[in-house]
């Protein structure tokens, strides 16, 4: 039963992290006056374009910023207290941004898009964000004594659940907002 609770916590972490990230994009777009569409794995202007070109980077930055904020909050909570069920909420942030960074080879994602548009090269900001999240995850594992086995199992669960979420989004394109 204890393992089932951890698996369910990991599922909740994946769904929460993905939706919070996409909701941040959606919210920023709406605040800037762009009618937005939100799905499980994307948020974009309903018209297909932003009202102003400057909105592109602002909307792109909102998702990673909220993901970093989530990671810092979880890191601080785990630093103060043993709440192992929260660990997936930290590791999902790292996995999500690592996956987005790798996907920059195919199609520019949030940090890659911003980094490229600022003339920093495609991978500068993605590597910076991954480095920060990697450090927070490593420091948590050291502080709490989490073994490689727990991290690998959690990582595997996150991969499975996030793949399911991404595939569901591609198959059904559920418009949440």
Automatic annotation (TrEMBL):
<keyword id="KW-0812">Transmembrane</keyword>
<feature type="transmembrane region" description="Helical">
    <location>
        <begin position="118"/>
        <end position="138"/>
    </location>
</feature>
<feature type="transmembrane region" description="Helical">
    <location>
        <begin position="150"/>
        <end position="168"/>
    </location>
</feature>
<keyword id="KW-0472">Membrane</keyword>
<feature type="transmembrane region" description="Helical">
    <location>
        <begin position="53"/>
        <end position="78"/>
    </location>
</feature>
<protein>
    <recommendedName>
        <fullName>Peptidase M50 domain-containing protein</fullName>
    </recommendedName>
</protein>
<keyword id="KW-1133">Transmembrane helix</keyword>
<feature type="transmembrane region" description="Helical">
    <location>
        <begin position="85"/>
        <end position="106"/>
    </location>
</feature>
